[in-house]
Amino acid sequence: MVCLFLIYQGFKFNSSYSILYIGTGLIFLPIVSYLTFWGLPGFKPGKILFKIHPGDNGEIISNKFTVPIRDIKMIDLERNRFTLYNNIVINTFNNRSFVIKTYNVLNDYRFYATIDEHVYPFLCIEAKEIWDRRISNNQLLKDLNFERKHNMKW
Length: 154
What we know:
three-stranded antiparallel sheet, 5 helices, PH-domain like, alpha+beta, elongated
């Protein structure tokens, strides 16, 4: 909307900055439109990104796939370079990779807290070691004073 407003004000030629308004509006209109259209599906009412069924036979369920928790090798929140939105990336022991789009609705702190509380206790030992390194080396979590809720000894 701001880009369209700038273009409109620029074509009125009421200011000595009118050419700048038109140029700025035309440059940023495609960028803002691109990001808006990528993010719209995340704001549907009732949208569920994923479900976690904890337990020894637990699984992470998305609209497109289901991943057993015992098969997870690594799970992380990564930023997509083109859309600038975070995605949950799940790698399994059979070298498959699953991506869950979050549309930046799920913030970093909530993601790490949720996985640490509901998925971590049921991961295999190798995956727990990888997750422990991710938690201990994450500067954002250190800055936010993230505390793990359960004993990490397995």
